[in-house]
Amino acid sequence: MIEPRTASVCAGMLRLNVTLWGDPAAPPVLLLHGLRDHSRSWDWTANALADRYFLIAPDLRGHGDSDWTELEGYALSSYVLDLADIAAAFGLERYAIVGHSLGGALGLRLAAAFPDKVAAVSGVECIEMPLVREERAKPVPYPARLRQWIDQRQANRARTRSGYATLAEARARMLREQQLLDAETIDHLLAHAMRRDGTGAWHWKFDPGTLPRPPFDQFGREQDQILEAVECPVLLQYGDAGWVPMPPPERMARLRNHRVIPFPGGTHWLHHEQRGKFIRCVSDFLDLEYRNPPNA
Hints:
By secondary structure, this protein is of the alpha/beta class. The chain has one domain: 3-Layer(aba) Sandwich (Rossmann fold). The protein has helices at about 45-50, 75-90, 100-115, 130-135, 140-160, 165-175, 185-190, 220-230, 250, 270-275, 275-290, and strands at about 5-10, 15-20, 30, 55-60, 95-100, 120-125, 195, 200-205, 235-240, 260-265. The strands form two sheets. The chain has an eight-stranded mixed β-sheet, with helices on both faces. Strand 9 (about 235-240), helix 9 (about 250) and strand 10 form a beta-alpha-beta unit. The radius of gyration is 19 Å and the shape is globular.
């Protein structure tokens, strides 16, 4: 693999770690990882694209080697602000986005807010966050959601992180949770996902405070407005063997210029489980819609 470069970007008071591949003079592409993940999850994809694109993969706030923030600082809007700061730091006037899960959802928000800057978005299972699916299945009044979020935050503050005595224990957990990933992929992801504390215990790098979604973060109405505001071509990838369903047709219809590529047998980590197909799809999409757009 090509060994990437790293850089730091100041986003307000936070230092964000950014991983880079390719020639900075080439067309830029933001690679946005999902929840509990890190930028080095994109190594395989970036290696396949680095001959013709400038790849910029940040560790999102609270993830990887980027700073953590206060427990109230993980709203979707805060992540999007960070991405706008990163784009400004690299002087990006026009760029594409490839995102997984949370990363894809952030990419769509950035495209909705900055249609003059985002030229194309490719996303893995990223249209609806769990909060939206839960709201559709069983609406909960705002006061109850607020109470639940406060309870979760207070529990997180009180929780102590025991960690793992050895990396082998963490590896065993990943193998249990990601049974479709090969051992080489697990080992690579794990190498960039863990840090050791002063006692010798191993911990995941992500902040547990990133997990509970704020009660004001997203509702179906806002999601529809986001999709309606996206002007660029969008490529979506969905598996049929995981826990993330396709959004309802009436929601997808709001995204004016999109196509969906199914991954039979795939779950949520399509960019690892079916890496060859994923990279071909993304590469073809970027080459056609971004690097050599048909109407250029």
